[in-house]
Amino acid sequence: MYISFIIPAFNEEQLIEQCLRSVTDAVAANQSYGYAHEIIVVDNNSTDATAHLAKRAGARVVFEPINHIARARTAGADAAKGEWLIFMDADCLMNAGLVGDMFELIKQGRHVGAGSTVYMPDQPWWAEVVLKLWTLLSVQLGWAAGALMVCNAVAFKEVGGFDLTLYAAEEIEWSQKLKQYGRERKLKFTILNNHPLETSSRKTRLYSGWEITRQFFYLVLSPLGSLRNKKKLPMWYDGRR
């Protein structure tokens, strides 16, 4: 079995090396599965040293000139050689337990894909409440968090990949398509929760309460209008790091 880890990255020079190291270490801890793997970093038109640092760390780097998360993930999938794709954000740290859970799921052959619960260290109380609410929805509804998405490569292509009209939340639409694909073939889609993925809480540090509230209301009052308009998603696309 060959696994492709796909990591989109825009100006992630501060975090990309530790992210890649976490993946390498977690895979090494699960070498008993005998799976070969590659790590692809999609440089999403960075203006810093992201691509250089990723290459130095041993990743294969591909370039996506349009700053758009769904396009970056798609570019990685197009370049991938793996039979299974694992999409992971650059501000996350992988752990050996989660890689073991993913590899076991792949080995069993009863799933089309999966997501994972996440945790964010050192975040304020209100962000912890929001994360707990998201975790409940994710597990109950089978919505993968964008921080980690796992799927069979053939299924990814057959469902049409990610919706490129969306600038955020494409992981929810993708989850729905994969679940339907799986039901038709008696395959499962699950949210792994034994070993949550660590993801950065930097948005709660970089954005004020007012900025976060304004972003929330944009999404609530006009969800599709906001998700299809890059200018209404500054927390995803203003480049603040």
UniProtKB/TrEMBL annotation:
Where does the Glycosyltransferase 2-like domain lie?
4-126
**Which terms in the Gene Ontology molecular function aspect does this entry carry?**
glycosyltransferase activity
Q: Which UniProt keywords apply?
A: Cell membrane, Glycosyltransferase, Membrane, Transferase
Q: Could you state one GO cellular component term attached to this entry?
A: plasma membrane
Which InterPro entries does the UniProt entry name for this protein?
Glyco_trans_2-like (IPR001173), Nucleotide-diphossugar_trans (IPR029044)
Q: Where in the cell is it found?
A: Cell membrane
Q: Does the keyword Disulfide bond apply?
A: no
Which PANTHER family would you find in this protein's record? GLYCOSYLTRANSFERASE, GLYCOSYLTRANSFERASE 2-LIKE DOMAIN-CONTAINING PROTEIN
Query: What is the protein named?
Result: Glycosyl transferase family 2
Q: Which organism was this protein described from? A: Nitrosomonas eutropha
